[in-house]
Amino acid sequence: xxxxLENLDFESALxxxxxxxxxxxxxxxxxxxSLKNFEKGIALTRICQSSLNDAEQRIKVLSKGLEKxx
Length: 70
Fold this sequence. Notes:
Blueprint: H1 3-6, H2 10-26, H3 31-69
Helix pairs in contact: 2-3
């Protein structure tokens, strides 16, 4: 994964992924270009998934704190 992609936040990665999907669906791309876009899409998907996993863990930690106070 490139440094440029690694620094994207969830919203930016999701927008880039949506744009990439639109391009792949609408354009008649060469096999090589399609493969490069697919690889980029996988990297963007991993960024989004990682962000969602992190958010889920934060919510679990915060929720545990609430349970103790109730």
